[in-house]
C-alpha cells in the first residue's frame, strides 16, 4: 500500500467514524507521510540517510496525537513495533539487568531492535534521574543503527525533564533528539475526549456516605454472579495482592495503588489481569502528596493504554482535584484521560 493513499484512507476513516476533518491534524498527517517516504521508494525508510530519523509530535491533551499516529501505524506493512514509552523503558532496564549492566548492553539491546524499520513510542516523558542519564546514549545508538522513531509527548523537547534532578546530565539527550528529529506541535482548541461526555456516570464526588452507597451498589451489580478471589502478582520478587477481585473486575482504594512503593511495572501487571477497575477515595492533590500524584499519573497512563474502564470516587469533580506545581502540566493529560475512561462512551 502506497503512502500516497494514506491521507485518503484517513479522510475515509474520519467520515466513517463521524470525526471532524481538522485542518491542523491533516497538516501533521502530510508531514508524517513525508517523514516516512523517500523520493525513490515509498516504503523504503532508509534509502535517504540525510532525512531525519525521528518524528517528535507534541501537544496538549486530547488533540488527536495518538489517534493520528495509531492510524498511520496500522496503515504500514513494514516491520514495526508500538509501545508505551514506560513499557519500552521497562523492557530496556530488564534487558540491562539480565546483562548485568555490561558496557555493551545498550548496543546489544538496540541490535535486537534492528528487525524493526519503525518504532513508535507513545507518551514520551522523562520523570526520573535513571532514565534521564541513560537516554542520550540509548537514543544515539538507535539513530546510529538507522532505526526510525515516532514519539508523542505533551512536552516540547526543550522542556523535557524541566526542573528535574541533575538536569544538566540530560541536556546531551536534548541536543541529540533535536539534531535527529522533526519536531511539530499539534494544537487544537478543544479536548475531544470531553466532547459529549459532560455527564460522567462513573465518577462520584465528594466522598460521603451517599456516594459510597452508590458506588457499592454499582459494584454489586457489576460483580453479580461472579466468583470472588484473591490474585497474587509477583513482579521481580515484589508481591502485590488484588484482594477485591471478581473475574476481571477489581476494586482498590487509592492508597493501595498510589501510597505504596510500586510503579509502572506493577500497574502493567494489574492491567493484564483486569478489564474493569473501581478506584475509591481519590484525594485532592497538592505539594504534600506529589509522590502519590505522580504514581496516579503513571497508573492512569497505563490503564488508558490498556483500555481499562474505570469507576471512581473522588474528593471533588475532576477539574477541582488540584495538583502539585511540578506535575500540573502532566496532570492535565491525566484528567483528560479520566474523562474518557469514566465516560459512558
Structure notes:
By secondary structure, the chain is of the alpha/beta class. The chain folds into two domains: 183 residues, Rossmann fold (3-Layer(aba) Sandwich); 139 residues, no CATH class. Helix content is 41%, strand content 18%. It has twelve helices and eleven strands. A six-stranded mixed sheet has the order 6-11-10-9-8-7, with helices on both faces. Strands 2-3-4-1-5 form a five-stranded parallel sheet. Strand 7 and strand 8 form a beta hairpin. Helix 6 packs parallel to helix 7 and helix 11 crosses helix 12.
**Widest β-sheet, arrangement of strands:** 6-11-10-9-8-7
How does the overall form come out from the CA principal axes?
Answer: globular
> What is the number of domains?
2
State the end-to-end distance: 32 Å
Structure summary, number of beta strands: 11
Q: Which regions have little confidence, pLDDT < 50, spanning 5+ residues?
A: 40-49, 196-200
Q: What's the rounded overall pLDDT mean?
A: 87
Helix content: 40-55%
- What is the H-and-E element order? HHEHEHHEHEHEEHEEEHHEHEH
CATH domain topology of the largest domain: Rossmann fold
Please count the helical segments. Answer: 12
Structural class estimated from helices and strands: alpha/beta
Which homologous superfamily in CATH is the superfamily of the largest domain? P-loop containing nucleotide triphosphate hydrolases
CATH C-level name of the largest domain = Alpha Beta
Largest sheet: 6 strands, mixed
Strand percentage: 15-25%
- Rg from Cα: 21 Å
